[in-house]
Amino acid sequence: MLQVYLVRHGETRWNAERRIQGQSDSPLTAKGERQAVQVGERVRTYGITHVIASDLGRTRRTAEIIADACGCGVTLDARLRELDMGVLEQRHLDSLTAEEEEWRRLVVNGTPDGRIPQGESMQELSERMHAGLAACLDLPPGSRPLLVSHGIALGCLVSTILGLPAHAERRLRLRNCSISRVDYQESLWLAPGWVVETAGDISHLDTPALDELQR
Ligand SMILES: O=C(O)[C@H](O)COP(=O)(O)O
Q1: 14, 99, 110, 205: which is deepest, by most CB within 10 A?
Q2: Has 22 been labeled as part of a binding site?
Q3: Which protein residue has the closest C-alpha to ligand 1 atom 6?
Q4: String of b and e for 164-203 (b: at least 16 CB within 10 Å)?
Q5: What ipTM describes this predicted complex?
Q6: What are the pLDDT digits (tens) for 151-202?
Q7: Which pTM was predicted?
Q8: How many CA atoms lie within 13 A of 25 on its CB side?
Q9: Catalytic (active site) residue 82
């Protein structure tokens, strides 16, 4: 059975400042680096064979730290990027006008094809994240990959595996450097497919970063 670990990157400067990142980027904070080290310490005995990261800087840095601990390399996959949040990227969450807040709600509330201007819909995000996950099925038998991605992107993936709408990700708390795991299961009782083993585990972190909406 293929087991795939899913890790959200460590805390970044803009996470800490409550700024919208999307496909824009900011560096890991000292806390974020420490969280990545703690993921590495936890998974180093898990037999991870591949670390596959979104090609944004924060996921690459987190992946490098984890891959060092696991003794494997990092490959990049742009399909694992965060939701493209268009014109609202880099903005402070508390600075949005009523009209801009309405754009954000189109995504959060699951409006069909809802998107921030110049951004991406949750359906588009879901399709590329599932394609990125499905690529793990082509790895050599016995592989155990670990994917490093983002809060909304991973939340969307886990929610849709469970049969929930993509925007249900808002109800799933995936903190920085939390670990989730999904398995590809082929059984007599269940149509072959992904099964969620665990989601949002932070028991390895001594300093969990609060979600930006909780600060
Ligand atoms: O700001 C964002 O883009 C999201 O809310 C969180 O994205 P991240 O997981 O890349 O920090």
Answers
A1: 14
A2: yes
A3: 151
A4: eebbbbbebbbbbbbbbbbebeeeeeeeeebeeeebbebe
A5: 0.96
A6: 999 999 999 999 999 999 999 999 999 999 999 998 878 789 999 999 999 9
A7: 0.97
A8: 13
A9: yes
